[in-house]
Amino acid sequence: MEDTPKHQGLRNQLVSKLREKGIRDEAVLKVITSVPRHLFMDPSLVNFAYEDNAYPIAADQTISQPYTVAYQSQLLEVGPSDKVLEIGTGSGYQTAILLGLTPLVYTIERQQLLYKKTQRLFSKLGLRPKKHLFGDGYLGFQAEAPYDRIIVTAGAPEVPKKLLNQLKIGGKMIIPIGNKEQLMTRFTKTSSTSFDKETFGRFRFVPLLQHKN
Ligand code: SAH
Q: Closest residue (by CA) to atom 19 of ligand 1?
């Protein structure tokens, strides 16, 4: 499948909708304008790629709603030299958005089927995160810590302590916290043991799972 002027037109419309819904970060909107979301969708759902909705992908997971991707990316405030850790690679769409903001992206997925599928897609599209890992995001990725930014794209019943530890002082983590419904939360690390905590809107994510089923 390819990217066509028709897809570009649909993306422009989607970005207008995201602006209407309050997304203001021009760097984020620019990347959403350029990343072909249809290539990250399940083949049976490509026609819905530029609707502002979440859709099923492999392994009972979902590709996040564009508004959610834009909202989290905006809160993350990624600079071009920031090292970013993403938990929950899923379809790879959010990863592609992050890669449009900084080349230093590390991403972790715990579903092996999805991990392999997205690995193939990344190489097909020439997308090169610094590392695409198969594993448990609760543990983070200590080998490359500390990170300037951490983004969790699944609903966390509690805050994974290891992720907070792997954040740089001054660094930020965006994480939806809750069970059925989550409160978007941003932690800013102010010293090795202290954090500022801010909360934003309510969202619904698939759960961040601790143990492999
Ligand atoms: N950013 C993705 C969101 C996918 S949904 C996208 O837009 O496509 C959340 C993802 O988190 C799922 O792929 C799920 O398998 C993964 N996940 C859940 N628990 C995890 C964990 N403990 N570690 C890593 N990934 C996890």
A: 208
Q: In what order do the strands lie in the sheet with 147-152?
A: 131-134, 105-109, 84-87, 147-152, 167-177, 182-189, 195-203
Please identify every residue annotated as catalytic: 64
Beta strands in the chain (DSSP E): 55-56, 62-63, 84-87, 105-109, 131-134, 147-152, 167-177, 182-189, 195-203
Measuring CA to CA, which residue among 166, 170, 178 is closest to residue 202? 178
Over residues 155-159, the mean pLDDT reads: 96
The CA distance from 186 to 173, in Å, is 6
Helix (H) or strand (E) holding 130: none
Please identify which residue in the block is written with the tokens 């198969």.
134
In terms of C-beta density within 10 A (0-12 exposed, 13-18 middle, 19 or more buried), how is residue 13 classed?
Answer: exposed
- Residue whose CA lies nearest to ligand 1 atom number 2: 90
Q: Per residue in 40-91, pLDDT tens?
A: 999 999 999 999 999 999 989 999 999 999 999 999 999 999 999 999 999 9
Per residue in 92-116, pLDDT tens?
A: 999 999 999 999 999 999 999 999 9
